Amino acid sequence: MASTSDIRNGLCIRFNNDIYQIKEFLHVKPGKGAAFVRTKIKSMTTGKVLDNTFPAGAKIDEVRVETRDYQYLYKEGDDMHFMNNETFEQTFIAADMIDNHDLLKEGENVKIVFDAADEKPLTVDLPTVAILEVTYTEPGIKGDTATNSMKPATVETGAEIRVPLFVNEGDKVKVRTDDRSYQERVKS
Q: How far is it, in rounded angstroms, from Cα 103 to Cα 127?
């Protein structure tokens, strides 16, 4: 058991029968009344972010987690198969547990966070950016660049993203995996 003085960013705790990760915290010592810790915590199973306040000195149940490197192999039905880069053991995770899973290419390396007590996968951290080839997009109209216009495009993984008008089929683009935003066109 830890206390609120042990709270730090990235700490995983068991709270309300779920595992949460601390995203932000602030120790508050008001002039009148008891001190407390204001936190933003994110559920490792549902992804929901909550604001919670702990009284100073309260006991919190710390959860030990391990981060391991895995390689994405393939998708089968609703499951995505991964292989441990060190032991070559395979595991599968439901695709709906992974944010923006459709931006993940086969052979890409990811980090999977496990609950060390029961070896249950909690989250899959995708690389920050993905380099993907555009397989379909409408052609841009020449001279139509007065505004910062975007058009839909389908990439090699089947995901649909928004790209600038000058991007054509066959171009490789860099896409942020957290918000699916276009970053730049990649020179081949």
A: 10
Q: What span, in angstroms and rounded, lies between the C-alpha atoms of 51 and 13?
A: 14
The rounded distance, in Å, linking the Cα atoms of 99 and 73 is: 17
Q: Which residue has the tokens 């860099």?
A: 174
- Hey, what amino acid is at 111? K
Pairing assessment for the beta strands 129-137 and 150-155 based on DSSP bridges: antiparallel
Structure confidence by residue, pLDDT tens digits, 73-122: 999 999 999 999 999 999 999 888 888 899 999 999 999 988 888 888 88
User: In angstroms, what CA-CA distances link 110 with 47, 116, 172?
Assistant: 18, 18, 21
pLDDT tens readout for residues 123-145: 888 999 999 999 999 887 666 66
CA atoms within 13 A on the CB side of 11: 19
Q: What is the Cα–Cα distance from 154 to 92, expressed in whole angstroms?
A: 26
CATH fold of 2-62, please? SH3 type barrels. (2.30.30)
CATH fourth-level superfamily of 65-125? Nucleic acid-binding proteins (2.40.50.140)
Q: Which tokens sit at 170?
A: 């066959």
